[in-house]
Write a structure and sequence with these properties.
heterodimer, A: 321 residues, mainly alpha, two-stranded antiparallel ribbon, 2 strands, flat, B: Rossmann fold, disordered C terminus, binds adenosine-5'-triphosphate, binds iron/sulfur cluster, binds magnesium ion
């Protein structure tokens, strides 16, 4: 088990290394002058010269890479000349917003998607199943943008017009400041995100549960006199879980790198909206930081997924000691 | 004798995409307290559906009739009442102990769960009971094994766990659905002994399903023969098995390899079981019955014999004995100078994380002669399958060589590899695991044509349906999924797939152990015929010595990765040299003595209720009345 985890960690480190090389090549070894890219079109010649010496752009490439990676490891992600602040500060300030959005949303999409999937699988072909399937199709086929706008319209604009305000339209209040305000501000984004993602989970749960419920050991559980609730949750859902965990890990990893559309629609200043502005403003150091950050999230969540998966499966758990 | 389980006129319909499956059609029987009641019948005859529907375990099934158990009708119990019967008063043991135990929970947990589902006991007390039970079914070191997972147990031990679980609440009735089919014959014998012991120790009544007449003749007091969802014959085990009155029972016995002289072809029951979608009006066995008459087109009456046997048949005389099929002469005679496979000093070890590497095959030298059938017997885990895979070139040996048709099978290029894959085919052991559940049967069987790009479209479909016909599958089921076939039907799919490309060497890994005897006989005869016609060579792996003895020219006995004995089938069977071989022989099914019966058929009368009874005043009727009276008072 420990061996397994260690090997997964080693693999994750390798992936991150390759990603860093890739990013480095892409942004530093480009035909145009990196200093110009970093500083922007209107930069003075002196500033550019200073950037060149700071970054050591006059030195050999391997040496440059070593400096680059060394700085990264020290948490120095460079300086954003366009926002006039260190990149690390800029990015770090955005992470709590995205994390709040993603993990809060996760609670909702799991709470919506999984029960729908289970009920559908328990009564295949029934009215409840068809409603659940219909929900899944709507969730999967509607663009997030439309759902977000719809939520804003129905839950904010319409009530406000009628004279009472249910939700704030946008903004973010840190949890430490006021947990209530934090949740209240995030409720609409959470629900919108959940609506989109829950559909995927409802489908996945339904498919998994249908397969597991047909297994011989489910029949054994019933023959033992185990009641139906326990059969569903303790026996069937237990086996249906691993693929859900995998999907969850992938989704979380990807989303922590920025939930672009929802952050934009609800005016949340998270990593996603930072990415959008950085790209639009050609703020290279920030883009690099976000790409690498996304990589770290994906690698870490994969590691968590693999470990959880191994813990969930008695066969894997007992095989590698 | 009191009646414990009284099934009357039970019918089970299962709605499916193709229409309603009439899996059980008006079956009645009674199981007496304390007896060992056997149900036999071929695959798909509705045995499993019947017993599972008694417990309400068939999803979506519509049942009618009644199942009286201790004065309650199980079919009309409320769900909660039924739940309290399941596992506490009636428990079930299933065929495949691996897939029937939850892979993610420990065996101890699963036994404790059953206890706690019915009784309010502390976790500690339940654990103590579970360990005691594991001990009683002779799991060594039970306390430590309590926390083991099913996959850490061997097949026999898993079935012991199932039995321990079944006994955990001291049920009045244990229903065992083919409890030994998936096990080695030596383990089979142990499990049967265990069931018998537990029956006397716990005073439990056993209802056991089996398609193996040899097994039932050994343990059952009374036997019911089922066919096409109906009851054919019911009576005392020796009466039914030694002197069958129903042509179907007689046919089953004729097709059992343990019951026939080696070398004589078996007499399979031709054709295949009737469709349960549209069951025939008259006798279900009519299409395959050598005694069929015109009157058989209408529903046969239930006949009573004076020895208590009940038979649903129009026939009044003993069933005829048809001649065995005439097989073509072999096109190729095996000779020692013409080996197709030559194995020399083969050794295979798997590295282990700690300590010595595990030796799976140990210095094996062996020749397979072109045109012969070489049997490979031994218990599970002794390396039979690994040896077969090494011969097929699918695993690389650690040392030694394998030659196929004069050429070594190591270091092949792509074309040679493809060629070898076509010329050597494998039929796998596990009919549950080797088929992809999401693919249609037609496309599974068509795989070889697709992979080797030999036929496509309508041509492939026609060839596949031909193969399905050949192995006794209904070609109409081309579009079904494996899960819609019964256990035995699934194995035939694998055989059809292997035969598709007319291979030279076919490695048959337990090819018929999951099949019913009538189909076993068909398949064995079919394999024999194909061999004679096409000069095929077979490597026949089995743990069932009776079958091996019947079909093989030579037998190699394997134990712990070595070949301990190799000789002609006769030598090994009649004059075993090794203690291990003798043990195997002892576990093989005994021949059932054929005794011509001297019994009286009771004449029919039609009573007011439509039930058919012997006419009053007839001596046999008096006999019957006495029996009935006896049953009522006792
Ligand atoms: N869940 C199901 N849905 C539809 N048909 C089914 C289902 N289960 C079984 N059947 C069909 O009902 C018939 C009887 O099946 P059953 O499993 O009772 O046979 P069996 O006598 O136990 O056979 P075996 O010896 O292979 O176990 C078969 O034709 C089978 O295909
Ligand atoms: S009723 Fe007729 S067809 Fe059926 S088993 Fe008897 S003799 Fe054969
Ligand atoms: Mg069955």
């Amino acid at each position: 088990m420990t061996r397994f985890i260690l090997s997964r960690i080693a693999f994750g480190v390798l992936v991150l290394f390759l990603l860093s090389v890739f990013v480095f090549m892409l942004f530093y070894v480009s035909p145009s002058d990196p200093a110009r890219i970093i500083a922007g079109d209107k930069a003075t010649e002196e500033l550019m010269a200073q950037i060149r010496t700071n970054l050591g752009l006059d030195r050999p490439i391997t040496e440059q890479y070593v400096t680059f990676i060394g700085n990264l490891l020290h948490g120095d992600l460079g300086y954003s000349y366009r926002s006039s602040m260190p990149v690390s500060e800029l990015v770090v300030s955005r992470i709590p917003v995205t994390m709040s959005l993603v993990f809060g949303g996760m609670v909702f999409w799991l709470a919506i998607g999984i029960p729908i999937g289970i009920v559908s699988a328990k009564h295949p072909g029934s009215v409840r199943d068809r409603l659940g399937q219909g929900f899944a199709i709507v969730g999967i086929s509607f663009p997030t943008f439309v759902l977000g706008m719809l939520a804003l319209y129905l839950l904010y604009f319409v009530p406000t017009k009628l004279g009472f305000t249910l939700f704030p339209p946008s903004g973010y209040v840190p949890f430490a400041e006021s947990p209530l305000q934090w949740a209240w501000h995030l409720l609409l984004p959470w629900l919108t995100l959940a609506l989109v993602v829950a559909a995927v989970y409802a489908r996945l749960t339904r498919g998994q549960m249908l397969e597991v419920l047909g297994q011989d050991y489910i029949r054994t559980a019933r023959a033992k006199g185990v009641d139906e609730r326990r059969v569903t949750y303790v026996h069937a859902f237990r086996s249906a879980m691993p693929p859900l965990v995998t999907q969850l890990g992938i989704d979380i990893g990807l989303m922590l790198g920025g939930v672009i559309v929802i952050e934009q629609v609800f005016g949340l200043l998270g990593v996603g909206s930072l990415a959008v502005t950085a790209v639009a403003m050609q703020d290279r150091p920030v883009v690099i930081a976000i790409v690498l950050l996304g990589g770290v999230f994906v690698v870490v969540s994969n590691l968590v997924v693999d470990t959880t998966y191994a813990l969930l499966d008695s066969r894997v758990r007992t095989a590698t000691r | 004798m009191t009646i414990l389980l009284d099934v009357r006129d039970l019918a089970v319909d299962i709605p499916t995409e193709d229409g309603t499956v009439h899996a059980v059609q008006h079956v009645s029987f009674a199981v007496n307290e304390g007896e060992f009641f056997g149900v036999v019948g071929e695959s798909g005859s509705g045995k499993s559906v019947m017993v599972q529907s008694i417990m309400g375990l068939v999803p979506g099934a519509r049942t009618s009739g009644s199942v009286l158990f201790r004065d309650r009708d199980l079919l009309s119990l409320a769900p909660e009442q039924l739940r309290s019967v399941r596992g506490r008063e009636i428990s079930m043991i299933f065929q495949d102990p691996l897939s029937s135990l939850h892979p993610q929970y420990t065996v101890g947990w699963q036994i404790v769960e059953q206890i706690q589902a019915h009784e309010k006991v502390s976790a500690k007390a339940a654990k103590a009971r579970a360990i005691d039970l594991l001990d009683r079914v002779r799991i060594p070191d039970a306390a430590a094994r309590f926390d083991a997972y099913p996959h850490q147990f061997s097949g026999g031990m898993r079935q012991r766990v199932m039995i321990a679980m079944g006994l955990s609440l001291g049920p009045a009735l244990i229903i065992a659905d083919e409890p030994t089919t998936a096990l080695d014959s030596t383990v089979q014998a142990q499990i049967l002994d265990l069931l018998g012991e537990m029956r006397s120790e716990f005073g439990t009544t056993v209802l056991m399903i089996s398609h193996d007449l040899g097994v039932l003749s050994r343990v059952a007091d009374r036997v019911m023969v089922m066919y096409g969802g109906r009851r054919m014959e019911l009576g005392a085990a020796d009466a039914v098995l030694c002197g069958p009155a129903h042509p179907y029972t007689a046919g089953l016995l004729r097709s059992s390899s343990f019951n026939r002289e080696p070398g004589t072809p078996l007499v399979p029951i031709g054709g295949r079981p009737p469709s349960l979608l549209a069951p025939p009006e008259g006798c279900a066995f009519r299409d395959r019955c050598p005694d069929a008459m015109a009157i058989c087109g209408s529903k046969p009456p239930v006949r009573h014999y004076d020895d208590g046997t009940e038979v649903a048949c129009w026939l009044e005389s003993t069933p005829v004995e048809p001649d065995p099929p005439v097989l073509p002469p072999p096109s190729l005679l095996a000779s020692p100078d013409d080996p197709i496979v030559k194995v020399d000093g083969l050794r295979l070890t798997f590295p282990q994380r700690r300590g010595e590497p595990r030796v799976v095959l140990d210095d094996i030298s062996l020749e397979v002669r072109r045109g012969e059938t070489l049997g490979l017997v031994g218990e599970s885990g002794c390396g039979k399958t690994t040896l077969a895979r090494a011969i097929a070139g699918l695993v690389a040996p650690t040392a030694g060589t394998v030659e196929f048709d004069g050429a070594p099978t190591a270091n092949l290029d792509r074309a040679q590899w493809r060629d070898l894959r076509r010329r050597v085919q494998l039929v796998f052991q596990d009919p549950f695991g080797s088929l992809n559940p999401r693919r249609r049967v037609g496309s599974i069987i068509g795989d070889p044509f697709r992979i080797h790009r030999l036929a496509s479209g309508a041509e492939r479909r026609a060839k596949v349906q031909e193969l399905m016909e050949l192995v006794g599958l209904n070609p109409e089921h081309y579009n079904r999924f494996p899960s819609q076939f019964s256990g035995g039907q699934r194995q035939r799919i694998g055989i059809a797939r292997a035969l598709a490309l007319n291979p030279e060497l076919v490695i048959l890994d337990e090819p018929v152990s999951a099949l019913d005897v009538s189909i076993q006989a068909q398949v064995l005869n079919l394999l024999d015929e194909l061999q004679r016609r096409l000069g095929l060579t077979y490597l026949f792996i089995s743990h069932d010595l009776a079958v091996v003895r019947h079909v093989c020219d030579r037998i190699a006995v394997m134990e712990g990765g070595r070949i301990v004995e190799l000789g002609t089938a006769d030598e090994v069977w009649n004059d075993p040299q090794q203690p291990f071989t003798r043990r195997l022989l002892a576990a093989a099914a005994p021949e059932i003595p054929r005794e011509p019966r001297d019994r009286i058929l009771l004449p029919l009368t039609v009573t007011g209720t439509g039930a058919q009874q012997p006419a009053a005043g007839h001596p046999a009727a008096q006999h019957l009345a006495d029996r009935v009276a006896l049953e009522v008072v006792s």
